[in-house]
Amino acid sequence: MARSIRKGPFVDPYVIKKVKAVKESGKLSTVIKTWSRRSVILPMFVGLNFAVHNGKKFIPVHVKEEMVGFKFGEFAPTRTFYGHGADKKAKKG
Question: What is the 3-state secondary structure (H, E, C) of the chain?
Answer without folding.
Answer: CCCCCCCCCCCCHHHHHHHHHHHHHCCCCCEEEECCCCCECCHHHCCCEEEEECCCCEEEEECCHHHCCCEHHHHCCCCCCCCCHHHHHHHHC
